[in-house]
Amino acid sequence: MAPLRWAIVSAGTISHDFACAVSTLPATDHQLVAVGARGLENARKFAELHGIPRFYEGYEPIAKDPEVDVVYVGTVNNAHYEVSRMMLEAGKHVLCEKPLCVNRGQARALLDFARERGLFCMEAIWSRFFPSYIHLRDRIARGDLGRIERVEVQFGFPLTHVERVRMKSLGGGTVLDLGVYTIQVAMWAFQAEPVKIDAAGQLNDEGVDVGITAKLHFP
């Protein structure tokens, strides 16, 4: 079976981490074949660092590259929908960095489109694949822990200095950047969507949430 041929969209820190992760996998299964960035020089440096044969300025060349099977989207949050949609329209499978989109409407439209095209599209919640998650999921399924009544999750560290997190125009905010981890682990534990949400938090001058406390009620 031929290896999956990966392309990376954006040459930032998270894309670097993804490229390093792929490099640990057998080349017979996964190969990095292209990278696209807003600046050609950034793409070139990234390709050179990770041994990627092709690099492009912009993202459209990735969509048009016939030797790309699946695309990792590591752009800033507000570009996730547009770039992922572009790749799906070109017949590429998509692994998009979290958050998948900046609102439910975009996420639903993107997933519906992928299903219509018969393409893989997933949000890159990497923690779902940790051995500890798999072990805990098995224990819950076996009933070792009884009925799950309460899940408490805390996660946070200083990010207010990071432009993409503090600016509304870039899809910033605590919930979209870190809160996705806490929300998804609660939904994962209960295997359900919350029926009610109580939340309170603080906003910065941009109107972006910099801290939040939430209670999710499950059926």
What is the fourth-level CATH superfamily of the largest domain?
A: NAD(P)-binding Rossmann-like Domain
Q: What is the tally of beta strands? A: 8
Instruction: Give the terminus-to-terminus CA distance.
Output: 44 Å
The portion of residues forming beta strands comes to: 15-25%
Residues in helix, % = 25-40%
Mean pLDDT: 94
CATH topology of the largest domain: Rossmann fold
Short précis:
The chain is an alpha/beta fold and 219 residues long.
Topology diagram in text:
Blueprint: E1 4-9, H1 13-23, E2 30-37, H2 40-50, E3 54-57, H3 60-64, E4 70-73, H4 80-89, E5 93-97, H5 104-117, E6 121-124, H6 131-142, H7 163-166, H8 174-190, E7 196-203, E8 209-217
Would you kindly provide a written description of the structure presented here, covering whatever features stand out?
The protein folds into two domains: 4-124, 3-Layer(aba) Sandwich (Rossmann fold); 128-217, 2-Layer Sandwich (Dihydrodipicolinate Reductase, domain 2), CATH 3.30.360. The chain has eight helices and eight strands, in the order βαβαβαβαβαβαααββ. It has helices spanning 13-23, 40-50, 60-64, 80-89, 104-117, 131-142, 163-166, 174-190; strands at 4-9, 30-37, 54-57, 70-73, 93-97, 121-124, 196-203, 209-217. The strands form two sheets. It has a six-stranded parallel beta sheet, sandwiched between helices. The protein has a two-stranded antiparallel ribbon with strand order 7-8. The model has no long low-confidence stretch (mean pLDDT 94). This is Trans-1,2-dihydrobenzene-1,2-diol dehydrogenase. Its EC number is 1.1.1.179, 1.3.1.20.
